[in-house]
Every structure is written in structure tokens, then in C-alpha cells.
Design a protein that fits this description.
By secondary structure, the chain is mostly helical. It has four helices and no strands. Helix 1 runs antiparallel to helix 2 and helix 2 packs antiparallel against helix 3.
């Protein structure tokens, strides 16, 4: 498996864990600021990677997540709203990780000859 895909999987795994913890626990505000930095940076990174691959719809999706979680100009919502957003984002990151891994494995595997 490609090293970049493994790194993306680790990055997304860390993001999913942080999002789930944020959704179901009550932590100090500093944790949520760090969460914003982590998710924004990861989404911006993944957006640029998809841009290099010319996968435009994914660029927009990851870019929107980066904007939503950006720590410079934070989006203000109530805690229950953020809980829903965190769970949806964690679900999306998990689905993307699985989809990305399947795509890499199917592209990298040798094809059987056609009969």
C-alpha cells in the first residue's frame, strides 16, 4: 500500500477519535480550539492532495470542512449543533478512509486476464 495512503489513514484516524471524543464528552475550551486546528489542517491538507489528483468534488468537500473548523474565523454554534457536526464529520472521514483504501488496493492490484 502506498505510504501516502497510510499517512492519510493515520491522520484521519486521529481526527475521527478527536471528533468522537469531542462529541460525547465535556472538555475545556482549549481542547475544542486544538480540535479546530487539527480538523482544519487535516482537511486543508486532504483538499490540496485531491486538487493535485484533479478530483474536484473532493476538493470542495474537504475545503468546506476546513472552513467550518477554521480556528481563525470560528463558526459559532451551540454545543448540540457541534455534536451533530462532529459525528457527521467523523463519519465522513471514516467513509473517506475506507473508500480511499479500497480505491488504492483495487488500482494497485494486478488484474486478471480477460477471457
Amino acid at each position: 500500500m502506498n505510504r501516502s495512503v497510510k499517512n492519510e489513514g493515520f491522520l484521519l484516524g486521529a481526527c475521527v477519535v478527536a471528533l468522537v471524543v469531542a462529541a460525547f464528552t465535556h472538555l475545556p475550551y482549549f481542547f475544542y480550539v486544538l480540535l479546530r486546528v487539527l480538523i482544519c489542517a487535516a482537511s486543508a491538507y486532504l483538499s490540496t492532495k485531491r486538487y493535485q489528483e484533479r478530483r474536484t468534488p473532493w476538493v470542495w468537500i474537504f475545503g468546506a470542512i476546513a472552513l467550518l473548523f477554521n480556528p481563525v474565523f470560528p463558526v459559532r454554534m451551540t454545543r448540540p449543533d457541534w455534536q451533530v457536526i462532529n459525528v457527521l464529520t467523523a463519519s465522513f472521514f471514516t467513509a473517506w478512509s475506507v473508500y480511499s483504501t479500497i480505491q488504492t488496493v483495487s488500482i494497485g492490484s494486478p488484474r486478471s486476464p480477460q477471457k
